[in-house]
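Input chain follows. Return structure tokens only.
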Amino acid sequence: MKVVFLEDVPGTAQVGEIKAVKNGFARNYLLPRNIAAPATPDAIQHASALARVEEKHQAALDGEAQKQLDKFTGMAITLSARVGEQGRLYGSITAGDIAEELTKLTGEEFDRRKIELAEPIREIGEYHVSIRMTRNVHAGVDLTVVAEE
């Protein structure tokens, strides 16, 4: 079934895209929630108008995110933690800890959900942490975890 998306569906489509999806997915999930509509000429026109609005909104978000990102691009963060005898941390360094340190350094509140860590850091060393501000704006920060004195 061909549908036109009226909202973003992560991993599937963005506003205004026309895609062929399985009948059950469209009938049971997309259509009842008004996330998508059958690909009729009126629906396509409506979705393209929504896509233009969304594009302007996304551009504004990207601009704001880039301004915030410029404050800590190239910045090196050092966190200290209690370490056991074999170099393993007693706890772990999480995205919340990194966000807290970025908040201290920049003076602005930083959301921990923008920091992409596959798993918490449990050993001392140097790491490259990826930060995803918006769908289009990404950056990286160098993080050094040292033993607490």
